[in-house]
Protein 1
Amino acid sequence: MQAFIENMPKAELHVHLEGTLEPELSFALARKNNIELGYETPEELIAAYDFYDLPSFLTIYYGAMKVLRDEADFYQLTWNYLSKAYSQNTLYAELFFDPQAHTSRGVEFGVIMHGIRAAQEDAEAKLGIKGQLIMCFLRDMSAESALEHLLMAEPYLAWLVGVGLDSDEKNNPPAKFAEVFKKAREMGLKLTMHCDVNQQNTLLHIGQCLDEIVVDRIDHGVNSLESDALCEAIKTKGLGLTVCPVSNRFVVQSLTSNEIRRMLEKGMLATINSDDPAYFRAYLNENLVELQREGNFTAEEIAILVGNAFRVAWLPDEEKMTYLQKLGAYIQNASIQ
Ligand code: HPA
Ligand code: ZN
């Protein structure tokens, strides 16, 4: 089963580029850019990863980003993730990035965009892994700042597939960003938002995503299972849910395997993702392998979860079909069947 998962052609739809910053790269960039990290070794840094809720994670996550300064740094970050993903047979990835976490430190918007884009182009040309970019707004910053960044992105529109919303959800509902997301939609971008696990007013927030923002996808969204009406709406609209098992475990002490099974039973399009793999110490394969073990999922169920990521990817139908055919051929040939 582990080999079946590891060799399977996969897609990842919920990974924060800044969340792929491995301790070794942090140290290398800190040395290059003359930045004090406050830790002696990568192991010491990893030992400080003691996350128990969203804010405790975000403090470490934003603190570590100070090592990202120039185009080459963003290139390296992106290249490292895409080559790691490719080594796990991930063929397609939609990548979140948090420009406000960099512009607020004096990094120019264009520096971020050019660094990431160059690595995407190289990874596609040299490895064959395709990446698309989703620009996230930090929900604990103002709607005005989000709008400013959306306008900064206008010259780079062809390099973005969508916008998202991340960071601290407490007191920062989707509705706060209704205008910005409306404008993003008018610009031709797809829309998604984080509805993190066990947040205050989570059902209200998921409802706002559906009715006020009219999202194309929901990130996490596990708590939707508490409302039959929300589940029905998510299913009827065919919205994908990007669930992140190992990330969830820091908050709810389980990989949410029961919840993921219930989503499948209800016909909801759940997908499995890594979120912030450098911090949670698990890329897509580890997420799938551990989830399969906890929930005792069959090969067929794993194939549905992996197939869902291609089904709800923000790609033209023909490209989705090509990936799904590749997955289908793999499953037919796999000895596990
Ligand atoms: N939730 C909210 N903000 C984030 C996350 C997340 O899972 N990862 C990185 N920023
Ligand atoms: Zn996330």
Note: The chain has one domain: 2-333.
Protein 2
Amino acid sequence: MRTIKSFLAALFIMAAFSITAQSMQYEKQVESLLEQMTLEEKIGQMNQYNGFWNVTGPAPENGTAAKKYEHLRNGWVGSMLNVRGVENVRAVQKIAVEETRLGIPLIIGFDVIHGYKTQSPIPLAEAASWDLEAIHKSAAMAAKEAAAAGINWTFAPMVDISRDARWGRVMEGAGEDTYLGCEVAAARVRGFQGEDLASPHTIAACAKHYAAYGFAEAGRDYNTVDIGRSTLHNVVLPPFKAAKEAGVKTFMNAFNELNGIPATGNAYLLRDILKGDWGFEGFVVSDWGSINEMIAHGHARDTSHAAELAVEAGSDMDMESYAYVEELASLVREGVIDEILIDDAAARVLHVKYELGLFDDPYRYCDAAREKEVTGSKEIMDACLDMAKKSIVLLKNERGLLPLKKEGQKIALIGTLAADNNSPLGSWRLAADDNTAVSVLEAMKVYAGNEIRYASGAELAIGNTAFITEMEINTTDKTGFAEAVATAKEADVVVMVLGEHGFQSGEGRSRTNISLPGVQQELLETVYAANPNVVLVLNNGRPLALPWAAENIPAIVEAWQLGTQSGHAIAQVLYGDYNPSGKLPVSFPRSLGQVPIYYNHKSTGRPVSPGDKLVFWSHYIDEENSPLFPFGYGLSYTTFEYSNLQLSKNKFTGDDAIKASITLKNTGTLKGKEVVQLYLHDRFASVTRPVKELKGFQLVALEAGESTTVSFIIDKKLLQFYTAKGEWAAEPGMFGIMIGSSSEEGLMGEFELVGTKH
Ligand code: BGC
């Protein structure tokens, strides 16, 4: 106990509050408020209740509405989630402000995961744009719309790295790569929070799920995580650190245990790393019910023990466990928990409320006129469309099938997803109205004068509910095949929109099969046999294994779930009004058996040697090691040529830097954009390093025929990793370098870091 006390005292002095004048002012206000608060009121700031509308987790038995209202009036609630809309937020805020003893405003949290009411593409899709400016703007627009509806805190960005396509929450993150994950995390945090958190158009962000949730065993949601030190520090934690450095105000912990200790009660993660080493000053919210779930994990004996473990570990706010509100006061009075822990947690929450301006005006997010004006505004819709176009990845384009001609082509549009107005909204679209996405069928008619005939082919979803079951989605009904075949036979080109329903990914939606759900593969093959001029447009929230399509279908467009403007974005790409430039943020496997598959794997002692006939290598006897489509891969309607890799020097000491450049030429006939990617390989290290790692990228626009020089600066910071000694350092030695168009293709060279310590 004494250790925690002295640790916290130091924490207060050294890191608790930033040194800006404004922040010092808030600190004083927080201190004086704390002095007036009873123990129960302080604990109240650590208590978060779900509202009365959306449910995003199992409802606790003791969570009746009557009880919630009673606790609100007592000043025992610091925050609510899933209360939205100015009218509803005003109603609960009014109780907190006008009916409690101290009138402390609530902080209102909501899962603004990819837009509020207007949906932008799912986060995985946004990451495929590699366009940080657009991602920043998209988050800013989502914040603006949410803030206008009374929300002042989003539970985003999710910065979990995942290498497992079975995990349904792959759709919520930026994919498999740590470097890209860091960049996207920072862009999204800055987008949500803006320059001024007190502005009525910005909201506090939340880096989640801390930590390692994306490494759930077998891709099964909420499952055990057991990973080593190197993976934790080199792969999992950096995006969280990047979010912290971008100024994120809150963190959410995770449902999983990490190496035997639930993340919610994990002092190493929360106290030692986050609040200690990184000096995080904001607050940590538990995940939904995760404090109580420590009992099911087999870590806490009962709710009281769970509350004790969580608060000691550094979880500041309890989301829907009722553990803090019911147990903490007696734990303090019995001397089990030091009140300084309560003071620290409550202070952190109050500080963020001051920063949001809630004490100046608790109703600053409750302006009904603004809500009306901002919701679904042209500015927000335009940003969503822009983001959606940028998120599309062209995977294959043979025989010049794409772009489609605008006149004189008879087009068959096949697949129930082509006409779906709901599925493109994706998972985590709680505030969106059902059926508000523009479908491909609707949009295809807007951009050209072609004759378009639609046939569903096979139903994918029966009903439209978020809790739809896999069996309902995967209907086996093939009665629509005949119409689809007849329609395809009469067409010049067949556009097939196939993939997953929007509710087949997301929380609790792990899958053991990552091929096309239901009878869609059979539909694809049947239609292809009738007319091979097929353009396959994929809708999905995770990588899919589509070896047959990759081999046979001439054109494939990865269109994820692109949100409200989905159909427009897809139609503009299909007709060539927009030249795609997205690149995959995840590897697409050839088969499920390869999962987890990721480009930045280790070499092993027996790496595959091409052409070797023996079996004693790290490989499969029935499948290649390589992915179907690699990380970083994506085509354009134009072509790019990489040449002339130049390094300013081949050796450097770490006090200086190397400039690496290439010439990029647009060798096609259209203007286009290319994501130029830098990969490095630390050949020998105290802890083995991946065969390559993304360490930089640039989005370059070039006119047809134009060329330019693209340069990257390589300094020692870029070479650092968590070494065998447990420090961030660059170790001297040889490094491989590759600059290219994907993780599998590029110009290669090498350089040496000389000296001893970096
Ligand atoms: C999810 C979180 C989410 C929370 C609140 C949980 O089930 O894991 O990501 O923010 O619910 O809706």
Note: The longest helix spans residues 132-148.
